[in-house]
């Protein structure tokens, strides 16, 4: 049965579907020996031979790990400038990649998988997957500014998606907030608050949809349960039925 090339690459664990599109356009993918750059190209998984950077790829068994990323680790597969990457914490795991963003100076939940489809469900704003953070900023913040942040502000020429922000505690010097996002741009929370000259002192992701830190300690990880995986897959099915 014909299948879009980017979807096939995500099933092979190469990258998320969105990232696979970028790899196709960059000329890293060949089908039957010919470089394919056109998005939407369909292949026959039973007959066609697909290569990524000169190596044949094929669907593999998917694995899913939920990691408590400590500060100081970069959420990437490889980075010549990174002192430590999150993959160093799951050395015995099969080839996986981090889903979504969590910068070096932040901590908390990070999903690692080789399932591009599930990565797409968690990362793409259209699936409305909540990511909840505990954020501490220097100073106090007014309800008016919170409403402006929630409504969306312009970053790199594009307005952020609506978010939810709630004050948890303030001592007059620093303020602890609950922040819920439905998208994940690079250093988004830090840049949102920087628009009003607030310094983010600490940032911890405590929830991804129904997944939470629970009893995980810094640097620890666990496998996702079958029900947790199926709950995300159902989210995609529900979207297709809308």
Which descriptors would you attach to this protein?
242 residues; alpha+beta; Structural Genomics Hypothetical 15.5 Kd Protein In mrcA-pckA Intergenic Region, Chain A; Alpha-Beta Plaits; 3 domains; 9-stranded mixed sheet; 4-stranded antiparallel sheet; 6 helices; 23% helix; 29% strand
Describe the model.
This protein is an alpha+beta fold and 242 residues long. The protein has three domains: 3-56, Structural Genomics Hypothetical 15.5 Kd Protein In mrcA-pckA Intergenic Region, Chain A (Roll); 64-125 and 210-241, Alpha-Beta Plaits (2-Layer Sandwich), CATH 3.30.70.580; 130-208, Alpha-Beta Plaits, CATH 3.30.70.1560. Helix content is 23%, strand content 29%. It is built from six helices and 17 strands. A hairpin with a 2-residue loop joins β11 and β12. The radius of gyration is 19 Å and the shape is globular. 29% of the residues are buried. The mean pLDDT is 90.
């Amino acid at each position: 049965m014909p299948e879009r090339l980017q979807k096939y690459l995500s099933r092979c664990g190469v990258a998320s579907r969105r990232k696979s599109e970028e790899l196709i356009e960059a000329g890293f993918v060949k089908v039957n020996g010919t470089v394919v750059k056109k998005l939407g190209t369909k292949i026959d998984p039973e007959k066609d031979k697909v290569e990524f950077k000169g190596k044949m790829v094929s669907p593999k068994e998917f694995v899913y790990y939920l990691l408590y990323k400590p500060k100081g680790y970069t959420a990437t597969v490889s980075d010549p400038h990174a002192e430590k990457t999150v993959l160093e914490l799951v050395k015995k795991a099969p080839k996986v990649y981090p889903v979504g963003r969590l910068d070096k100076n932040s901590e908390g939940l990070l999903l690692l998988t080789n399932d591009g489809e599930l990565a797409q469900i968690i990362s793409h704003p259209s699936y409305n997957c909540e990511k909840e953070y505990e954020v501490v900023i220097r100073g106090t913040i007014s309800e008016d500014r919170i409403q402006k942040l929630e409504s969306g502000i312009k970053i790199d020429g594009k307005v952020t998606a609506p978010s939810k922000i709630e004050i948890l505690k303030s001592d007059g010097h620093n303020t602890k907030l609950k922040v819920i996002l439905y998208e994940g741009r690079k250093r988004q929370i830090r840049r949102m608050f920087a628009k009003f000259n607030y310094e983010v002192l600490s940032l911890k992701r405590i929830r991804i949809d129904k997944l939470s830190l629970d009893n995980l300690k810094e640097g620890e990880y666990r496998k996702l349960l079958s029900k947790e995986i199926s709950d995300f897959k159902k989210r995609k099915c529900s979207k297709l039925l809308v």
